[in-house]
Amino acid sequence: MTLTDAWRSRLNAGLGVGLLVVAFVVAWTVQGWRKDADIDHLKAGIATANQAAADARAARTQQVLQAERNTRDAIQAITDKLTNERDTARHEKDLYIAGVRSGAIRLSVPVIAAVPARPGCADSTAAGGPGQEARAQLTPAAAEFLDDIASEGDDAIRQANALIDAYNALREKLNVQAQEPTGLPAQGH
């Protein structure tokens, strides 16, 4: 039995189309596998980059937290130093005032006593003479009052110095002028 030419050409055309469809399906599948492998490779690269970024962020956070702890410790040391200096000064002031109140320490100030020069005065250069210094002893209450004023000034100076020390410590630890914490790489560079 022989096929007619029409059927033969139909069969060849059908076979050609079938082979084309099979080739297309095979190519589509192979291309899909290849693209899936590329996509998986890209996803792995993204995951690796995300993990590296997370690790870098965690390391940077730890560095910043360590810089913050160092700064906090430096400020605490300055505060402790101020407290110790203030306590020492208070103790010395209390001892001084106790000595003034008991009379063991006397506080006097220079005064110029206006004494008219008399022709009969033998020693015009003696204390209390014109232009000469004489001393006046202060009462314990007046001495304590003046010492309180001086102590408040000293305390204010100690506080100002501690503030300057804290500012310098912060500037050193955080390197404010460079806008970058000390020892840390610049972000985004």
Give a description of the structure.
The chain is mostly helical and 189 residues long. Helix content is 70%, strand content 5%. It has two helices and two strands. It has a two-stranded antiparallel sheet with strand order 1-2. It is rod-shaped.
Shape category:
rod-shaped
**How does the major sheet shape up?**
2 strands, antiparallel
Low-confidence stretches: none
Radius of gyration: 47 Å
Number of DSSP-assigned strands? 2
* Residue fraction in strands: 5-15%
Count of DSSP-assigned helices: 2
Quaternary structure state of the chains depicted: single chain
- On the 0-100 scale, what is the average pLDDT? 83
SSE run: HEEH
Helical percentage: over 70%
SS-derived structural category: mainly alpha
Strand order of the largest sheet: 1-2
Span between N and C termini? 82 Å
Summarize the structure in short.
This protein has 189 residues and is mainly α. The chain has two helices and two strands; from the N terminus they run αββα. The longest helix is centred in the N-terminal third of the chain and has 98 residues, at 5-102.
